[in-house]
Amino acid sequence: MSSEEIDSVSDWPALLVDLESKLFRHFSINVYERCLYYHLLAITRAQGISYTTVSLPKLATACDFSEHSARKYLRSLSAKGVVELDQTRQGFNILVKLPNDLGLIEDRVEEQYLNLEELDFFSDRKYLSELLSRENEQCFYCLKTVSEETCALDHVIPQADHGGNGYENIVVTCHSCNSKKQGTAAEDFLRHLYRANLLSEVDLNPAVGGRDRPLGAVWAVDFGVDFSMPARPWAAAASADAPVRGHGG
Fold first, then answer.
1. What is the enclosing helix (H) or strand (E) of 172?
2. What is the pLDDT of residue 104?
3. What pTM does this model have?
């Protein structure tokens, strides 16, 4: 084995964090093994090479170990899989492994960004706080103030009509609206609230309460995803029928 050029580490602070929190913890690396590992890292990866050849006396001197201890901790690191050894007449050919070489680093993009389109916003009320924030803590239909303790979740397009559990179809409601709406189409239920004097013409406007607003900014903050929700045509349809109250509707 001979020294080989490799891509240099681009983020040493992040690597050190990963070493301490992932590699050393995962493999139960003790303080003496850490000392030896860091020395090997300094003479290999820090120099832009993946492995090097070094004699046992030099390792012992560099780490202030006896040769017996140096051999013991070197073989221990090898047994744990964080270095690879190939003994020769000149010493040891040593390959130093990093956390990503050992599968200890998850994809950071996947850690930070969720696939919003695949999230279930209905089951287990897991994203209730985000939904409440999006709806300004108001019932999506009657605009009554609600909280985590007093709200329900509703499918704008009923499940019977194949409405899903995605962010576009799940809204926060009061228990009264949730109970009364059930499988009713959203625009029909809004007309019902208007005729029952529970919504004014201003309230029925799809822009009031954010019924037609883009949600990109809200969800970009909460989930790290940049997208906008299309306007809901049923809200505008209900608003267009608002004058029916004045005509005996």
1. strand 170-174
2. 84
3. 0.45
